[in-house]
Amino acid sequence: MLEAVRDWLAPGYLYIKAVHLFAVMAWIWSAAAAFAYILVPVFKAWRRNPTDPEVIELRNWAIERWDQIVDYEHIAFPVVLVSGPLLYWVAGWNTASAWLALKLLIVVGIFLPIEIIDYYVSYFGGNKRRLRLRGDRLAFERTVQWHWLFLLLTAPIIMVFGTLVVFLAVVKPL
Amino acid sequence: MNEPDLPAFPWGPRDYRRFANWLSVGIHLYLYLGMIVLLYLVNGQTWILGWKPAAITLVSGVLLARLWYRWMMQLDARYGSGRGWELWSRRVKLPERAERPGAGPT
């Protein structure tokens, strides 16, 4: 049965690959400009003026918008997670290729945990809009601060390993 | 939500250094051991046990820890004077999402 499905999908390998690439690009880059030119300047202003009420107001608005800005990224990531293994299975790849082994380790062990936390801080317990509407100032502030630490920690890693993963997939150096 | 009695941001450069060092060590250990499992144990390739992959892992780990720390410091406004920016007080209206009937806040 599975073999029949694989044979049926095999001619569409390049189409699945195109979907995978679009999703990877959306995942890596969709929020990059907003991060660099909106969120970072606003948060730097806050870090230099931590008690300025007007700066805090702008910071709160920006981080609430950020919870929405990452929508594209969070739609793309599940597409990556589905299309990637599909490519692996349909083409009969295996972990004997070092580039693929390294890529899989990065996606599963680094990107996946980061994204799980990112979904939580954007949509679930860490959603700023929901916290603001609830009127819980302390929880809102702690969540914003925690979210900023999360972004400080993950932005460098996403840039370094995101670039590496694309390089590995395209060049297949090992 | 603008009162200044809210808790201050509790993390700083010492934490960033610690995070960068330990997370870089953890990530590189995970990737190096993972590659040994996938290439050597699963596929019988012995080259992964040589000195070159170990050396590359070591150099990469040190570079990433350094880069990571500096990047965090940069993002968190710990480097530079901030003189490239000015703060202007303006009265503005900030757009907020409207409540849709029947939909909870998202």
What is the arithmetic mean of pLDDT of chain B? 90
Please count the beta strands of chain A (DSSP E, at least 2 residues each): 0
Give the percentage of residues in beta strands of chain B: under 5%
Number of strands of chain B: 0
Mean pLDDT of chain A: 94
Largest interface, counted by CB within 8 Å of the partner chain's CB: A-B, 52 and 41 residues
Number of helices of chain B: 2
Give the low-pLDDT segments of chain A.
none
Distance between the termini of chain A: 33 Å
Helix/strand/pairing class of chain B, anyone?
mainly alpha
Strand count, sense and barrel status of the largest sheet of chain A are: none
Give the H and E element order of chain A: HHHHHHHH
How many domains in all of chain A? 1
Helix content of chain A: over 70%
Query: What coarse outline of chain B follows from CA principal-axis ratios?
Result: elongated
Radius of gyration of chain A: 19 Å
Helix content of chain B: 40-55%
Determine the strand fraction of chain A and express it as a percent band.
under 5%
- Multimer state: heterodimer
Radius of gyration of chain B (Å): 23 Å
In short:
The complex is a heterodimer of chains A (174) and B (106). Chain A is mainly alpha-helical and 174 residues long. Chain A is built from 8 helices and no strands.
Describe the structure.
The complex is a heterodimer of chains A (174) and B (106). With 174 residues, chain A is mainly α. Helix content of chain A is 85%, strand content 0%. Chain A has eight helices and no strands. The longest helix of chain A is centred in the last third of the chain and has 35 residues, at 137-171. Chain B is mostly helical. The two termini of chain B are 19 Å apart. Classes of the chains: A mainly alpha (174), B mainly alpha (106).
Record the SSE blueprint.
The complex is a heterodimer of chains A (174) and B (106).
Chain A (H helix, E strand, L loop, with lengths): L1 H8 L3 H17 L2 H17 L4 H17 L1 H21 L6 H26 L4 H7 L2 H35 L3
Helix pairs in contact in A: 2-5, 3-4, 6-8
Chain B lengths: L12 H29 L9 H25 L31
Helix pairs in contact in B: 1-2
